[in-house]
Amino acid sequence: MTDQIIRHVELRWNPQIVDSKWQQRWQDDGIYHVNLEDQGSKWYELTMYPYPSGDAHIGHWYAMAPSDAHARFRRMQGKNVLHPIGFDAFGLPAENAAIRRGIHPHTWTMANIDRMRTQLKSMGTIYDWDKEIICCLPEYYKWNQWLFLQLYKKGLAYRSHAPAVWCPSCQTVLANEQVIDGKGWRSGAVVERKKLHQWFFDITKFSEELLKELNTLSNYDLILVNNIKSYTCCTEHYLDYFNWILNSVKPNNGEILTHTAGFYYIKPIDIEEINQIANKHGYTAFGETGVIVIKPTGNRKL
Q1: Contacts of 10 (CB under 8 A, 6+ apart)
Q2: 20 domain-assigned
Q3: Residue 276 has what pLDDT?
Q4: What is the per-residue DSSP string for 181-230?
Q5: Using one digit for the tens of pLDDT, what is the confidence trace for 43-94?
Q6: What's the distance, CA 217 to chain centroid?
Q7: Do the beta carbons of residue 194 and residue 166 sit within 8 Å?
Q8: Contact 260, 246 (CB under 8 A)
């Protein structure tokens, strides 16, 4: 009788072993290298660059996995796909985090980038890491500076005083969306609204050109076009949109009038300017009858 050889195979997948094996093989073979000089059909697939505040988390996967799948799909269609990766690492939050830990911001940020880079590579994404971008290094931000200088030379960048939301803990301005119940979302400190000397871009100089070119579009979202036209044609020439719940006394008969109205603004405004603009449109603000100003995002009252 012939001896029977029995082999026992463990039916188990070990991702740490299997993934790392093939990811190393892909790296050695350079299968994700992108030749920018290739004259074939090109495809640019961009996702947001992660902020290196610590470790990668599930939110990064939510942002990167779908775009990675789509980039692979385009590559399978024969496209020369550039799907870049980098780190959005320029700003005061990184400096404040380093100060709290008694570490130089460059040391803290680059250490986070090294750790996050390793974690992102474990995803097996299609990124060409030879083309990595790090926004806090001069090789990158010198182009931000160059672009700003071009705008400044053309009179499109200027300084002016304007109100802003200020976090006294982070020592920086915040977007309205970063304020929750009157406190900074990161620090929890009560925010202040103060006038600051800031830089602005004079984009309204291009409003007429924008309106003219909108008429040349075909098969476009008409709602979006109409919204752009509404904001561009406004007499105040501001960039933000406010929904005003107006409670006012009609001048002719003293009747109380309550309704809503929308206005667009380019520059940030403060309470004093709200009163002036309300009066311009025939309403009394902050008197016996008043104006409640609400921003659409989160219905926040100003």
Answers
A1: none
A2: no
A3: 65
A4: TTEETTT-PBPEEEEEEEEEE-GGGGHHHHHHHHTT--S--HHHHHHHHH
A5: 999 988 888 877 888 888 888 999 999 999 999 999 999 999 999 887 776 7
A6: 26
A7: yes
A8: yes
Q: Helical H runs in the chain?
A: 15-29, 58-76, 92-101, 105-121, 138-153, 207-214, 222-232, 271-280
Q: Give the end-to-end CA distance of the chain in Å, rounded to a whole number.
A: 91
Q: Does pLDDT of 260 surpass 70?
A: no
Question: Domain check: are 47 and 125 in the same one?
Answer: yes
Name the helix (H) or strand (E) containing 86: strand 86-87
Do 32 and 133 belong to one domain? Answer: yes
Distance CA 278, CA 299 (A): 19
- CA 140, CA 88: separation in Å to the nearest integer? 11
Structural domains of the chain, count: 3
Integer Cα distance of 178 and 197 in angstroms = 21
43 sits in which H/E element: strand 42-44
Is the same domain home to 193 and 288? no
Same domain, 32 and 60: yes
The domain containing residue 161 runs over which residues?
Answer: 155-201
42-51, 65-74, 130-139, 280-289: which has the minimum mean pLDDT? 280-289
HSE on the CB side for 78, CA within 13 Å?
3
Residue 228 lies in a domain: no
Residue 292: band (very low, low, confident or very high) from pLDDT cuts 50, 70, 90? very low
40 falls in which pLDDT band (50, 70, 90)?
confident
Segment 26-40 shows an average pLDDT of: 89
Q: Is residue 251 part of a domain?
A: yes
Two tokens at 79? 């496209």
Domain assignment present for 227: no
Q: How many CA atoms lie within 13 A of 187 on its CB side?
A: 20
